[in-house]
Specification:
With 252 residues, this protein is an alpha+beta fold. It has nine helices and six strands; from the N terminus they run E-E-H-H-H-H-H-E-H-H-E-H-E-E-H.
Length: 252
């Protein structure tokens, strides 16, 4: 008896081997396989940890939060959304519970290493607020620097008038950025600078930038940064788990 096809398209059967061949031809097979392995590890871990049960009230609140964030407060809208997703409420609630369990597992797995990891990377996690003036010509950038240093011209007004970047609309000031996100050739000038110091012009992507350090913001292990580091450690933990697995493919 022939095995059932993996799926059919316009009544044409597609075997699992052919489906995998399609994925290989598009370069999507490895990511597809990694997702399967990752999910296998997660489900195995969830089954073997007895301390990950989530209180039903917490699950219900998470459902309420999801509906609010996705503008699905109206019961009819929510039911219609479930239909479009082809999922029952029970399955949806189970997905929410599984997500909460994974977050609990993540906190448990990363807790022993989180503070050490934060301290080891703190120098690059610290943030800096910078203002900038970006122009296309080096001589023009040098002329602007001379104006700022020689006659007290205001950095802000020159940024509004001459800078080529969108932040000229806010006097050239950029959002806070971690030092690790700044290219190394720029970071080496930023780290030793003092607030108010003018740097440059520096060539960045074919343009010339005058930078002024506004303030440094020490990293704190809380909020979004804590979640980001937990995610990094958790992914590393999953990768380590995956490398220890014996994986064989059985495709006819």
């Amino acid at each position: 008896m022939e095995s059932q096809p993996f799926l059919t398209i316009d009544d044409q059967p597609i075997s699992l081997a052919k489906a995998i061949g399609y994925l290989r031809s598009t370069g999507d097979f490895k990511p597809f396989l990694l997702k399967i392995i990752r999910q296998h590890i997660l489900e195995t871990e969830l089954q073997t940890h007895d301390d990950l049960e989530i209180d039903s009230n917490i699950i219900e609140q998470a459902v309420i939060d999801f509906r609010f964030e996705n503008q699905l407060n109206d019961p009819d809208d929510f039911q219609e959304w479930l239909k479009t997703q082809r999922i029952s409420y029970a399955d949806f609630r189970q997905q929410i519970a599984a997500r909460l369990k994974i977050e609990k597992l993540k906190a448990e797995v990363t807790a022993p290493k989180l503070e050490e990891y934060f301290n080891a990377n703190k120098a690059l996690l610290n943030q800096v607020v910078i203002s900038r003036i970006v122009v296309a010509d080096l001589d023009f950038a040098l002329n602007l620097k001379h104006q700022i240093l020689a006659d007290g011209s205001r950095f802000e007004s020159l940024a509004r008038e001459h800078s080529l970047t969108n932040d000229r609309l806010v006097n050239g000031i950029m959002e806070a950025i971690s030092l690790g996100q700044i290219p190394s050739q720029v970071r080496e000038y930023i780290i030793p600078a003092t607030p108010g110091e003018l740097i440059g012009p520096l060539e960045i992507d074919g343009r010339y930038a005058l930078l002024r350090v506004e303030r440094f913001l020490p990293a704190i292990l809380e909020g979004s940064l804590k979640r980001e580091l937990q995610d990094q450690l958790f992914e590393q933990w999953l990768e380590d788990k995956a490398q220890k697995l014996t994986i064989k493919m059985h495709v006819e």
